[in-house]
Amino acid sequence: MKTRAIIAVAALMAAVAVPVVAQQTNEEKVVCQLAAKNCLNQVDILQKRVKKLNAEIKKGKKTYSAEDMKKLEQKLQETQELLDKVEGKAPAK
Questions:
Q1: Whole-angstrom Cα distance, residue 80 to residue 50?
Q2: What single string gives the DSSP state of each residue in the chain?
Q3: pTM of the predicted protein model
Q4: In this structure, are residues 42 and 57 in contact, taking their beta carbons and an 8 Å threshold?
């Protein structure tokens, strides 16, 4: 009985999904692919920026003043928040 119900629901969902996919134009598909690629590129750029900022922060007060360290930490926090948004993670509070 459960198997029949699952099959019926799956068939209904497939019937509804096919027209939606068929309505997407070639232009919309290209835009979607570009957006996905740009998102991946953005993630790579942000990850590199986080690594670079962490490396600079590790140099510490030998290289940077207290004010510069605060700026670096702020930039790191902003970059991490942006990376979390792009990756779809919940912001840490």
A1: 7
A2: -HHHHHHHHHHHHHHHHHHHHHT--HHHHHHHHHHHHHHHHHHHHHHHHHHHHHHHHHHGGGTS-HHHHHHHHHHHHHHHHHHHHHHTPPPP-
A3: 0.58
A4: no
Do residues 62 and 29 touch, judged by C-beta distance below 8 A?
no
pLDDT digits (tens, 9 = 90+) for 16-65: 655 555 566 777 777 777 777 777 788 888 899 999 999 999 998 889 99
Domain boundaries, the chain: 26-87
Please give the Cα distance from 73 to 54 (Å, whole number). Answer: 9
**What's the number of CA atoms in the CB half-sphere (13 Å) around residue 53?**
19
Whose CA is closest to 14, among 6, 3, 24, 2?
A: 6
CB 17 within 8 A of CB 64: no
Taking residue 52's Cβ as centre, other Cβ atoms within 10 Å add up to: 13
